[in-house]
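Box 3.1. Reading complex inputs
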Amino acid sequence: MRQLEFVVARLLKVVLVMFGIVVLNFFLVRLAPGDPATVLAGEAGAVDPQFMSEVRARYGLDRPIHEQLAIYVRRVATLDFGESYRIQRPAMDLIAERLPATLLLSLSAFVFAMAAGVALGVLAARRVGRWQDMAISVTALVFFAMPLFWVGLMAILLFSVQLGWLPAYGLETVGGGFSGLRRAFDIAAHLVLPATTLGLFYVAIYVRMTRASVLEVSRLDFVRTARAKGIREPRIWRRHILKNALLPVITLASLQAGSLVGGAVVTETVFAWPGVGRLAFEALGQRDYNLLLAIFAVTSAVVLLFNLVADIVYSLVDPRIEARA
Amino acid sequence: MISRRQLGALAGAAALSPALAAHAEEPRRGGRLNLIVQPEPASAFIGINRLGPSAFVGSKINEGLLSFGRDLKPRPMLAESWEVSPDGLTYVFRLRRNAAWHDGRPFTSADVVYSITEFLPKVFSRSRAVFTNVDRVTAVDAHTVELKMKHPFPGLLTVFERSGGTMVPRHIYEGTDPYRNPANEKPIGTGPFKFAEWRRGSFIRLERNENYWQPDRPYLDEIYFHVVPDANGRSVAFETGQVDVLRGGDVEWFEVRRLARLPEVEVTEAGWEFLSPLAWFNLNLRNPPLNDVRFRRALSHAIDRNFIVRTIFAGFGTPCDGPMTRGMAFSDPAAWTTYKYDTRAAIALLDEMGLRPGRDGIRAELRFLPLPYGETWLRLGDYLRERLRAIGIRLNVTPVDMPTLVQRVNAGDFDIFSNFVYMLPDPAMNFTQVYRSDMKAIGTSSNLGGYDNPELTAMLLRAERTQDRAERQRLYTEIQKILTRDVPILWTHEIGFLTLHRKKVRNLMATGLGTDDTLADTWLAG
């Protein structure tokens, strides 16, 4: 019962935060100079005041800002995010088209980063001070420090241009006409470079976090006690050290999982991956307020959702957290 | 566009395009051409979106009455012939009888009348400006259209290519808001290719129009436009053979040289004759000291146009210190006042103005907005900053994105910004708009710097309405004299856009519109 109350309280918080985000974003996108009318006029080859005022009137951009906000919030409350000014299709349709590609990329990168990061972090902690620890830590640091676009470009030059092993860009072969299993393999081949590139950055974070956390926990009294009691080493690692050491890693994972949906702009651009990140970047460049706000709302909702899940997982792993809530 | 020396150097590695030479080979039917479109356009319908990417894709779908050869002479397109009366007051177009819209409806004079009188004036300011010279448009019969002019306007034919004179289906657009018509998503034209599929963020696919009015055309089965947002990615796409063509602007200028040396690649300067891009720095003449002609002349002395072409634009293009490209009708460089690269002359002019350096060596401060079209344009801004520093002017560079640039320029909130404009073959098109005093008001215009010369404006209007060619030349020569004396704009160079393509792609540059034309004549060798 207390678990249920905890979840309901959290959900209420999520709704409030979401409202705050929608209002804040509404003002945020309008801080950038220029508006959709300037962009549309430029595209139409009709930069004249008459055309621009027509566009502003058509989309209600000529009304006072508080009226625009009221209309927007009312619409969003009914989950109507409006239409992209530039592409003239419902913003949610455009996002839905791109979401599968982004989820595929982010989740692959996420799984890769989690698995490789935690495994290497534990290994480094177990071999602390030895060459394996050094090698893992230094490599992780290098990938953490290198900009994503640089890693991506180098990967393309090596694996696509020089070796010719993997495709350089896109979600699948343009005009390949594959279906079924062949299409799945084609997409998988296209996924390798961007997912690895995006994942490597996070691998570095997980390695460092896991290593530090494992080292800290393994020096605590209860581990020493367990050893003194004669419990076998694998069991100590599994039940005592890892279970406790992974708590901060879960926090990190929940934050990362949320941001992966909207945060892959660079990777998506370098690899021409048709995802939400690129859509957001383009919408910003075009001052496509409706589309941009819809993307912000979706990504914020995902971040909040993952945080909620993390809270619940936390409360399951560590019952003291529920008590505090 | 490109200097002969440069092109010769490239041709050493990659032979000059056979597109330039007559080919003895028999064209082959079939195949897929892979192109790059960047940035991804909002629409594939050229009728409502005339930016480069839309025009590139849309020009295969929607056509104009005319096209233009590399010699800039009009060529038949949807009009199979035309006549202009000697007094320049009547134009008669005879239309193709076998042309049809992609939905099967015939293309007739009613479509032409609708496009010229209703659709185009509503959606495109250049067409609107040009068609104000037309008194009435009449469908003489189903395949003949007559235009009666209010006065002669000898540049008129230039507007009838696919962008200024897009022909749109009346049965679909009449009585609708052109910007909200559902057909815009799947445009219907008369062109050699039909819209087939668009996966946003990935590609646009066009397929062969089996009922095209020109028999046996197009040769290609389909065209894919790949969407690759990153300039490095576009290089790689070409290098790895996933796309067959790279157009000017797809990759940075400094990459072109390397890619041109790849095996099986050809490079051509052809295909930009019609658009004829001219680069310059717009100056805001409303702001001191830019309102003083001596200051503007000093700026002109301070920049080395040869350096700009040779170093920043990797040797592609031609320095230009006047308002017209060499290819334009009535261009007369002999009449220009030129300001040779001479720092001392620049400083002398500033001294003469009484614009003395302060204790920090600075005489004046200006705000500069670079064109947000990639690294090359940023480097051009860096160069300008360094050169102006040498004559005691501090240039504060603010990199901006496109909407910010448009907004600030429209609000007159700038001193200098870099720009390039498609000049088009006849000065009555874009050239005139740039200098007319009645287009100088902030927020309205193409005369973005507020250059105010009513006498010149009167001459511009007279010149575009003068049927006699010799008289027209005399007027435009005079106009060029005045402009190069007044320096309302800091012209720098004719841009040299090169197109790289695989050798197997034949007849890519069939007209002066290059890859922006229909590509009906383009084919792939085996």
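In summary: The mean pLDDT of chain A is 86.
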